[in-house]
C-alpha cells in the first residue's frame, strides 16, 4: 500500500460558513498515518445569521463522527461513508460539539475491517456497526476538556483496536492503481490504470468499490476536484478558468465549471470568493440541493 500522506491531502473548504463554528484539525501519530488523514473538532454556534452552514465536499474519505451537547450529553455517533455531492453538515439549531476521525481512502477497511462499500453516500449510527466500540469512545470523548485531549483519547482507542485486529494488508493491484491515480492528480484514465496493473477494468472497479466505496472513475474525479480545490484556493478571484480547465485536462471551460459546481455546489468564481470570506456560504442538504 502506498504511503498516502505525501500523495493526497484532501481538504474541506474553509469558507465563510465556518465563521459560525470553531474548527480544528490535528494529524495522526506515525503509527496511524497510513490510515488516517486527520482528527478534527468543531463547535456549532447557531444564531449568527443565515448562510452559516458548514460545507462538506466530496474527498473520497470516510469519517467517524461524534456529537454532543455542551453539558456532555451525547447526541449521536455516526459513520459517514464516501459521497459524491456537497452538503451542509450543520442542520441542527442547537449548540453542538463535534469530534471526527477522517480516514484515508481504504484506511478504515484496512485498520478496522469495516467494508467501505456498505456506507457509500450514507450516514449510519456507529453503534449499529460491529467492531467500533463506539459507545465507549463517545463517552470518553464527551468528558474531555480540550481538542488535544480528545485526539489523544481517540489515538489510544484506535491503536488498541488495531492491535487486537492486526490491520489488513492492502491488495497489491488496488494499492498500485491507487498510487498511480493519486500521483496523477486523478487524471489517469481507468483504461490506463487497468493496463498498468494487468487486470481488467471490471476487476479494478470491484477492488476500488471494496476498499473505498467508489469506483475508480468517480474516485479519480474527486481526486482531480480536490487537486483543483487546493489550486484555486491559492489563486486570485479573477482566475482564468479556461487556463485552469486546460491545465487539469478538461475538454473546455464549460465542462470544468459544470464538474466543479457539481462537487462544490457553486461555480469556481463564487467558491473562491466564499473561501476568502467575501460572501456568505450557501447551505446544501445531503442530496446536494440548495436550501436557500
UniProtKB/TrEMBL annotation:
Signal peptide: none
Location of the HTH araC/xylS-type domain: 172-274
Domain of life, per lineage: Bacteria
Gene Ontology molecular-function annotations: DNA-binding transcription factor activity; sequence-specific DNA binding
Entry annotated with the keyword DNA-binding: yes
A Pfam match: HTH_18
Keywords for this protein: DNA-binding, Transcription, Transcription regulation
PANTHER family, sorted: HTH-TYPE TRANSCRIPTIONAL ACTIVATOR RHAS-RELATED
Protein name (Swiss-Prot/TrEMBL): AraC family transcriptional regulator
Species whose genome carries this gene: Paenibacillus hemerocallicola
Amino acid at each position: 500500500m502506498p504511503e498516502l500522506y505525501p500523495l493526497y491531502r484532501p481538504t474541506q473548504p474553509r469558507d465563510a460558513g465556518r465563521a459560525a463554528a470553531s474548527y480544528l484539525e490535528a494529524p495522526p501519530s506515525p503509527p496511524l498515518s497510513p490510515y488516517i488523514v486527520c482528527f478534527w473538532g468543531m463547535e456549532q454556534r447557531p444564531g449568527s445569521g443565515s448562510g452559516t452552514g458548514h460545507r462538506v465536499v466530496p474527498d473520497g474519505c470516510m469519517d467517524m463522527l461524534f456529537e454532543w451537547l455542551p453539558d456532555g450529553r451525547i447526541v449521536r455517533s455516526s459513520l459517514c461513508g464516501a459521497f459524491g455531492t456537497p452538503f451542509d453538515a450543520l442542520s441542527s439549531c442547537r449548540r453542538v460539539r463535534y469530534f471526527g476521525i477522517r480516514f484515508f481512502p481504504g484506511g478504515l477497511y484496512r485498520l478496522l475491517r469495516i467494508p467501505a462499500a456498505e456506507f457509500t453516500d450514507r450516514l449510519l449510527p456507529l453503534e449499529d456497526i460491529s467492531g467500533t466500540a463506539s459507545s465507549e469512545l463517545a463517552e470518553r470523548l464527551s468528558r474531555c476538556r480540550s481538542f488535544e485531549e480528545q485526539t489523544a483519547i481517540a489515538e489510544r482507542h484506535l491503536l488498541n483496536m488495531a492491535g487486537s485486529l492486526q490491520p489488513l494488508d492492502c491488495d497489491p493491484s488496488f494499492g498500485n492503481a491507487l498510487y498511480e491515480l493519486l500521483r496523477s492528480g486523478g487524471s489517469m484514465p481507468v483504461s490506463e490504470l487497468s493496463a498498468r496493473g494487468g487486470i481488467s477494468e471490471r476487476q479494478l472497479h470491484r477492488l476500488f468499490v471494496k476498499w473505498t466505496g467508489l469506483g475508480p472513475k468517480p474516485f479519480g474525479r474527486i481526486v482531480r476536484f480536490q487537486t483543483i480545490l487546493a489550486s484555486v484556493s491559492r489563486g486570485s478571484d479573477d482566475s482564468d478558468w479556461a487556463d485552469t480547465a486546460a491545465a487539469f485536462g478538461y475538454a473546455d471551460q464549460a465542462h470544468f465549471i459544470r464538474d466543479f459546481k457539481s462537487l462544490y455546489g457553486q461555480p469556481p468564481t463564487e467558491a473562491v470568493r466564499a473561501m476568502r470570506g467575501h460572501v456568505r456560504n450557501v447551505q446544501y442538504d445531503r442530496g446536494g440541493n440548495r436550501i436557500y
